[in-house]
Design brief:
By secondary structure, the chain is an alpha/beta fold. It folds into three domains: 91 residues, no CATH class; 125 residues, Aspartate Aminotransferase, domain 1 (Alpha-Beta Complex); 230 residues, Aspartate Aminotransferase, domain 2 (3-Layer(aba) Sandwich), CATH 3.40.640.10. It is 42% helix and 15% strand. The protein has 18 helices and 17 strands. The strands form four sheets. A seven-stranded mixed beta sheet has the order 4-12-11-10-7-5-6, sandwiched between helices. A four-stranded mixed beta sheet has the order 1-2-3-15. The chain has a four-stranded antiparallel beta sheet with strand order 13-14-17-16, with helices on one face. Strand 8 and strand 9 form a beta hairpin. Helix 7 runs antiparallel to helix 15 and helix 8 packs parallel to helix 15. Bound molecules: pyridoxal-5'-phosphate (PLP). Pyridoxal-5'-phosphate (PLP) binds next to helix 9.
């Protein structure tokens, strides 16, 4: 009975594929996954499922409506857990990520444990997200307690946690008010919309947002357009264009920024003649480019961006999604550059791994949105905000920023030493606090991704930042002995790669 229902659900899903070919691919994958399974029960239930599907008279062009069947009894998730995890991913998860062949099942502090029991030092921390490491008792308790009280009600109502987190963020930054969402991309999307509305309010019909080459701002259509890296645009254009209203400029290049602002300020005559007005809405920058290769901004560049934004009634937006919430050694990356943005965005570490994002606005623009202008169902719900408050409290009470600065210095010195010992492989080391990168030289004979794989064999998790930088982003609470051990493992990985002993 259950198998028959599984089959009908699968048939309905397969029917969403537009061609018989796609159906054939699904069927082949299912078939090969069952034959490669090591568990006999898994193999027999897969083959029973396969034969049920193959004997079905419904073909690939059948739509859900044609099936004419309402599922009355669901297959419980536990019944699906008989496959190896990677096999389930191969058949059931869209391949938007290239994954390393490790399945993690638990974590503690700066370590993660895989399903074979191997323990890794985690210098990825969910890509700069698990600020307090794994299984932090305070974060766990806050989330569990909140779950037991109330975890979601809708932004139609007030909840204390959202107000408290907004207040903490504002009291510890140049911002006046928060808008909560669920991710970095959404926070940036909100910032982009705010900048456009702010420009529209000033009579600009064609608001332009400047972003920097090699930036990364997210994967929604607007934020991936803001992301000035053509590789992320491929296949997502309309008539060759991404979202209108974005212009790109080389990061840290003062003259190019000045010239671009001058150009934007002149509305093309064919647009001016029909009443359109082009103008600068915002300059949107990461204080340190993370995905773009761990490149810190310069004070001069950000001072100029501030000056140009002011001179044009536009906004300076800082994307603090990766560098913010303490990772740079100060709470916000823009503090390293001695600049105050009108808007900044946060996510990743904000909830310590519980999804939450925030778009923070200074007083001059914090009332740009009114009711109905922007929204998010989950944004700032009590569960996510309880996590954010636990992170905020931990950072405040344990002087985590001092740890970030000390451990960051230790990491920087250690990486520079290793780079000095392997000058044919490693180049410049750069970054702030616990957001560090080491450049892999062009003629090193390996890529950053390959070195990350080498380090993984040594029990150290790292992540590439672009093709030629290996990134170190441990939890902000990482200990001195863990940084020392990570450096030993990284050197061992390099030594193995070049065929020497460290
Ligand atoms: C600087 C920056 N902005 C935005 C994002 C997008 O964040 P999310 O993946 O949470 O949407 C990222 C993600 O890496 C990022 O590094």
């Amino acid at each position: 009975m259950i198998l028959a229902q599984m089959a009908s659900v699968l048939v309905a899903l397969f029917a969403l594929s537009s061609s018989a070919d796609a159906f054939a691919v699904h069927r082949t994958e299912l078939s090969s996954s069952s034959s490669s399974s090591s568990s006999s029960s898994s193999s027999s239930s897969s083959s029973r499922l396969r034969s049920t599907i193959e004997s079905s008279s419904i073909d690939a062009s059948t739509t859900i409506a044609d099936v004419g069947h309402v599922t009355t009894k669901l297959v419980p998730p536990s019944k699906l857990a008989h496959h190896a995890t990677s096999e389930l991913f191969d058949t059931r998860v869209q391949k938007t990520y290239g994954r390393y062949p490790i399945t993690f099942v638990s974590g503690s502090g700066s370590t993660l444990t895989d399903d074979t029991g191997k323990v890794y030092l985690d210098f990825v921390s969910g890509i700069a997200t698990c600020a307090l490491g794994h299984n932090n008792p305070e974060l766990t308790k806050a989330v569990c307690d909140q779950m037991g009280r109330v975890h979601h009600v809708s932004n139609l109502y007030y909840t204390p946690q959202q107000g408290q987190l907004a207040n903490w963020l504002c009291e510890n930054s140049c911002a006046d008010k928060a808008f909560f969402c669920n991710s970095g991309a959404e926070a940036n999307e909100a910032a982009i919309k705010l900048a456009r509305r702010h420009a529209n309010n000033r009579g600009i019909t064609d608001p332009v947002i400047i972003t920097a080459e090699q930036s990364f701002h997210g994967r929604t259509l607007a934020t991936v357009t803001a992301t000035a890296q053509p590789k992320y645009h491929k296949g997502f254009t309309y008539g060759g264009e991404m979202v209108a209203g974005f212009r790109y400029t080389p990061y840290n290049d003062l003259d190019a920024l000045r010239a671009l602002v001058d150009e934007i300020n002149v509305t093309p005559p064919e647009h001016a003649s029909v009443g359109r007005k082009r103008g600068l809405a915002a300059i949107m920058l990461e204080p340190l480019q993370g995905e773009g290769g761990i490149k810190p901004g310069t004070r001069e560049y950000f001072a100029l961006a501030r000056e140009l934004a002011d001179a044009n009634g536009a906004l300076l937006i800082c994307d603090e999604v990766q560098v913010g919430m303490g990772r740079s050694g100060s709470l916000w990356g823009h503090e390293q550059l001695d600049v105050k943005p009108d808007v900044f965005t946060s996510a990743k570490a904000l909830g310590g791994g519980v999804p939450i994002g925030a778009m923070m606005a200074a007083k001059s623009v914090s009332d740009t949105f009114g009711p109905g202008d922007h929204a998010s169902t989950y944004g700032g719900n009590p569960l996510a905000c309880a996590a954010g408050l636990a992170v905020a409290e931990y950072l405040s009470e344990h002087d985590v920023l001092s740890n970030v600065r000390a451990r960051g210095e230790q990491l920087a010195v250690g990486l520079a030493d290793i780079a000095g010992r392997y000058p044919t492989v490693l180049g410049e080391t750069r970054g702030w606090g616990l957001l560090r990168g080491v450049v892999i030289k062009d003629d090193a004979g390996c890529t950053a991704a390959e070195l990350v794989g080498d380090a993984m064999k040594e029990g150290l998790l790292l992540v590439a930042a672009g093709p030629s930088v290996v990134r170190f982003v441990p939890p902000l609470v990482v200990e001195e002995s863990e940084v020392a051990e990570a450096l030993v493992r990284f050197e061992r990985a390099i030594a193995t790669r070049v065929g020497t002993t460290p």
